[in-house]
Amino acid sequence: MSKVWFSEFVLLAGLLAAGLLLGGLLGAVGWWLALALLIGLLRHLWQLARLEKWLDSGRQRNPPESWGVWGEVFEHYFRLQKRYYKRKKRLARVIREFRESTAAMPDGSLVLDGEFSILWFNDAAEGMLHLSSKRDLGQSVLNLVRSPRLAAYLAAGEFDQPIVLRSPVDETRSLSVRLIPYGSNQYLALFRDVTRMLRLQAMRRDFVANASHELRSPLTVLSGYIESLAEDPGIGPDWHAPVVEMQRQCRRMSSLVADLLELSRLETEELDPDCVERVDVPSLVERIVQEARLQDGDGHVLEVVSVDAAQLIGVEHELHSAFANLVLNAIRYSDPGARVQASWRVDEHGQGVFEVSDNGIGIEPEHLPFITQRFYRVDSARSRSKGGTGLGLAIVKHVLSRHGARLDVASEPGEGSTFRCLFPADRVVAQPAEELARA
Ligand code: ADP
């Protein structure tokens, strides 16, 4: 038994003993015992009254002095309360620091609840979206930023990537918006002004497109003269090798300019709905392989294996460019005479799969994440000597993303590579039975 409880019992026992003694001396033991118990009870009531008064005072002061069980109760309560205030203070400090740091952020930050209503916003958001705390707190963010794009983004609930919107207060500015879910059903919405970045990107794209366009005409003239020179029987034997080299370099520059123009077209132009059609993939694949055979000077064995009759909804010349790049790469990065296989099939999920595999040099795993970047080459010397521009896979990536498709690469150094283009099922059209019969 603890000391305080012991002293409590000793007090009660003392009171009862005093009652018994007085009753024994003066008579009426029952009354004296009742009086002793009453004194004990009054003591507890008095302590309860002190506790109540102390709680009522807002617990600002130290607890009343007491001893025994009541002293312990006051002490415990006081300690609990101190711990609670400490924790509350720490939490308030964390919230204040969070608010101060987000308030200082140059990005517009809004805290939204599960219904996307605004709970809090920082100064940058106030300026960027013309918000006012009196008017707009509690309002849905969609009432203040009226954008179908934002509505679709919020409805989809996929917040991994940001979206770009026109600013609701200034048509000439663009904002990138990203939602970060946190806590229980709350979101931090970050608005960033990306006008300058988009302008710079557009300037870069325009510059590359204009420069490539300007280079095309002089290059055509030069190529023409060099071709004539190469065919001229009058040039001396000393000139033969330099002219062949000039011819090779001119062709390389022409492919580079053509690829740059193609890439900037893919980057700048929206997919033209008039050009979207049902593409007859089997004959496209056949054509690409025929063209590759003509270009290949190293006797590769090019095969078309497993061709499904299914068609693909897309832009034929873009698909031609992507598929041809993959076939030419397979030739470029495998030994003369090696086998290259192309196929088109519909997999068990209904996806259209165009696949090119080779037994060539393969790619080390550390290079795989980068090979679709512009001018990224694992072996620049080999790429250049084989006529590569370093832009082929960047073109493939753009074409596929315009078709809602993705590229999957499996490669083993020294063993070979397989490049797979995976098209979503809703773009694949199984060929109707009567067309199949006619075919
Ligand atoms: P390039 O014109 O240099 O071929 P690409 O963009 O088409 O440029 O390809 C980028 C790089 O990826 C190539 O330089 C090469 O190193 C690697 N690569 C592409 N296809 C293959 C392949 N089938 N086998 C091995 N490496 C490949």
Structure notes:
With 439 residues, the protein is of the alpha+beta class. It folds into four domains: 3-93, no CATH class; 105-193, Beta-Lactamase (2-Layer Sandwich), CATH 3.30.450; 201-268, Signal transduction histidine kinase, dimerisation/phosphotransfer (DHp) domain (Helix Hairpins); 273-438, 2-Layer Sandwich (Heat Shock Protein 90). The chain is 54% helix and 18% strand. The protein contains 14 helices and 13 strands. It has helices at residues 3-26, 29-56, 68-104, 123-129, 133-136, 141-144, 148-156, 195-231, 237-268, 281-295, 316-332, 380-385, 392-402, 433-438, and strands at residues 108-112, 118-121, 163-166, 174-182, 186-193, 276-279, 301-307, 311-315, 339-346, 352-358, 406-412, 416-423, 428-429. The strands form three sheets. Strands 2-1-5-4-3 form a five-stranded antiparallel β-sheet, with helices on both faces. Strands 7-9-10-12-11 form a five-stranded mixed β-sheet, covered by helices on one side. A hairpin with a 5-residue loop joins β9 and β10 (352-358). The longest helix is centred in the first third of the chain and has 37 residues, at 68-104. It is elongated and about 150 Å long. The chain starts with a helix and ends with a helix. The mean pLDDT is 90. The site of adenosine-5'-diphosphate has 24 residues, from α11 and α13.
